[in-house]
Amino acid sequence: MTGPHAAGPVALVTGAAGGIGAAIVAHLGQQAYRVVATDLHAPAAPHAARAAALDVTDARRVEELVDEIERTLGPIDALVNAAGILRPGALTTYSDEDWARTFAVNTTGPFLTGRAVGRRMAPRGRGAIVTVTSNAAHVARAGMGAYAASKAATAHLTRCLGLELAPHGVRCNTVSPGSTDTRMGRQLWTEAHGADAVIRGSLDAYRPGIPLGRIAQPQDVAGVVAFLLSDAARHVTLQDVVVDGGATLGA
């Protein structure tokens, strides 16, 4: 949340080591947030007030870090769940370990952080939570079933959390990127034979192209996240904003 604040609002961002998470940290830092940037290993984050190691699947560590942040920096005003993994593969041959790990990071992680931060925000009567999901939560993706299912579950988890926290003045929204110029995104471009192929789409893969004719940059997503955290979005909750250049055709 932006607005009058003596030392700048405190934001906790997961998955901050690169890609969309790093762009969110930079964007919020430039807006005078005091950002705690986290990843499995403390990330290099010049725009952050602090960097810390956080495994979002470790409930005890999540609680410890949230307690520490609130004790040393002050109340957490904003939580951004940007941590996520993608392990492609056909569902009929997908391993138990890949399935469990995908849901642990992509769905259990936002549950644990949302629980820890949300229950502290509620008594204060303010706060905003934004979770980065995916446009794959809206449409089926061949070879991405576990990822798509985990992101769809997380989107609905966030709506349910938002419904519970709304009476306390806490807002919860999701942002669903499409193809974005990140390490994860480039992994998929290789499989699709390049970014141009992703933009054009593929009937064989049941995948539409991108009407705007470009791959998103992480900053495109970060700007939408920052808006949803801000007072300009003070009456926006339980919503999903799709940032994919029209690839899901409004789905």
UniProtKB/TrEMBL annotation:
InterPro entries: DHB_DH, KR_dom, NAD(P)-bd_dom_sf, Sc_DH/Rdtase_CS, SDR_fam
Pfam family, one: adh_short_C2
Top-rank EC class of the record's enzyme: oxidoreductase
Keyword terms: Oxidoreductase
Domain Ketoreductase: 9-169
GO molecular function: 2,3-dihydro-2,3-dihydroxybenzoate dehydrogenase activity; oxidoreductase activity, acting on the CH-OH group of donors, NAD or NADP as acceptor
Enzyme nomenclature, EC number: 1.3.1.28
One Gene Ontology term from the biological process aspect of the record: siderophore biosynthetic process
Oxidoreductase found in the keyword field: yes
UniProt KW tRNA processing keyword: no
PANTHER family to which the protein is assigned, alphabetical: 3-OXOACYL-[ACYL-CARRIER-PROTEIN] REDUCTASE FABG, SHORT-CHAIN DEHYDROGENASES/REDUCTASES FAMILY MEMBER
Family named by the database record: Belongs to the short-chain dehydrogenases/reductases (SDR) family.
Protein name as catalogued: 2,3-dihydro-2,3-dihydroxybenzoate dehydrogenase
